[in-house]
Amino acid sequence: MGLPRFGRPKGFEGDSSPNLYVANCGPAVGLSYDSIASVFSAFGELKGVFAADDSGARVIVSYRDESSATAALEAFDGHPCPDLGGRSLHIRYSVIQPTSQVNDSVPVSLMASELNIPGLYLLQDFVSIKEEEELLAAVDARPWKSLSKRRVQHYGYEFCYETRNVNTRRKLGELPSFVSLILERISSFPNLDDSANIVLDQLTVNEYPTGVGLSPHVDTHSAFEGFIFSLSLAGPCIMEFRQYAECAWLPNHTSSPSMKMQSPEDDKSFLRRAIYLPPRSMLLLSGEARYAWHHYIPHHKIDLVKDSVIRRGSRRVSFTFRKVRTGPCQCEFPQYCDSQR
């Protein structure tokens, strides 16, 4: 289950609540969730300890009953707590925020096989820590292009965000030498009989600051062929996959790739899957995963993975490798294909 939605304690008009908003407490000030739970559990059974916000310095301590929360508040509010590094805690009651919206979280898997999406693969530790450092140093030595919320670099061909396509008549050159090792390993990627014949000629490097994600999208069928490889470096993230029942987000006329599309967010009927991408892991989208599922990175600073709270790093850098398509797409998913609609 996802993180509960707690209301801010400002303006709370109740005498008490089983939930406590605790400031000056959390991973950002050197206190683990386990250590916090251990101290507060002395006053009663806990439902859990949750992040109150993205700061890492404020938590919600949730009890089974109100009397336990009251006892903890009276004992700790405004007083140093020896078992929590001597920190003075600032505590108020909090409440779970009622909502009629669909929960915006989805259970997160650690393995691609758990998602049951054909063509989706994830290899962990695809590069070593030393190789990761060298790759990051290589791109940081080159100029970045700033977008609204992130920075990018393009190699081989430049991706045009306005048309969601590439200009095949304007080649930037060969892929840089610092990714040669990655390309060599991709050529022997397991589970794909024809992976050795893959010739990748386009690379986009994305740098995501903390809390910045990616809107739901399918890489344009007519722009790229059937294999998309994405290497995650520096920081972790959650990637969600969505398959929409309707295809209103596709342009009606393939002759105009720049046509404005309806946002997939307007369609609330979709299947959802999510996977955790640790640093140095390589994700492959192929077949149905590439052609028929939107992929999406939620705009979070904190993710819940198997009941563990994972803070995103100060940056995440992805290397996405693709093969530019030179003709129309003839995939097996015409309902999602801009070439076949």
From TrEMBL:
InterPro entries, alphabetized: AlkB-like, AlkB-like_sf, ALKBH4, Nucleotide-bd_a/b_plait_sf, Oxoglu/Fe-dep_dioxygenase_dom, RBD_domain_sf, RRM_dom
Single GO term (MF): RNA binding
The keyword RNA-binding appears for this protein: yes
GO terms, biological process: demethylation
Residue ranges annotated for the Fe2OG dioxygenase domain, each copy included: 199-325
Domain RRM residues, every copy: 18-96
Keywords, alphabetical: RNA-binding
Leader sequence residues: none
SUPFAM superfamilies recorded: Clavaminate synthase-like, RNA-binding domain, RBD
RNA-binding in keyword set: yes
Membership in a protein family: Belongs to the alkB family.
Protein's UniProt name: Alkylated DNA repair protein ALKBH8 homolog
Organism field: Juglans regia
